[in-house]
Amino acid sequence: MSLFIPAESVPGRVGMGMTTMLTLTAMFSSVRQNVPKVSYISVLDIWMLICIIFVFSCLVEFIIVTIVNRAGKKNIGEQFENVCKIAVPVLFLVVNIIYWSVIGV
């Protein structure tokens, strides 16, 4: 969701991104403590890591857009932002389809 907050709103985007990342990390920790210990990577571990990777990619996208905008290439930054507003949700949907079809739910 932070992709839809304007890039000029630095506190809003950083706050949302970091809050989401910290929440996912806390959830991952809690889940790992409450499930039986196994020696292999579980499907739940993979799901949580996928979510963390997507949130982290949104933070990286914001950093790239901010750097490009501050370099005076605001037009390129806006184009990259618009591409990411479409690409990230579509990619997340594709990953969901693949993930849920592989685990057979």
Q: What does this protein structure show overall?
A:
- By secondary structure, this protein is mainly α.
- The protein has helices at 10-34, 43-70, 74-103.
- Helix 1 runs antiparallel to helix 2 and helix 2 runs antiparallel to helix 3 (74-103).
- The radius of gyration is 16 Å and the shape is elongated.
- The protein starts with 9 loop residues before the first helix and ends with a helix.
- The mean pLDDT is 89.
Low-confidence stretches: none
Shape: elongated
**What is the count of DSSP helices, taking H or I runs of 4+ residues?**
3
Please provide the ordered H/E string of secondary-structure elements.
HHH
Please compute the radius of gyration using only Cα atoms. 16 Å
**Mean pLDDT over all positions:** 89
Distance between the termini: 27 Å
Largest sheet: none
**Can you count the beta strands?**
0
Helix content: over 70%
How much strand? under 5%
Instruction: Give the class from helix and strand content and strand pairing.
Output: mainly alpha
In short:
With 105 residues, this protein is mainly α.
Write the layout of secondary structure elements.
Layout: H1 10-34, H2 43-70, H3 74-103
Key terms for this structure?
79% helix; elongated; mainly alpha
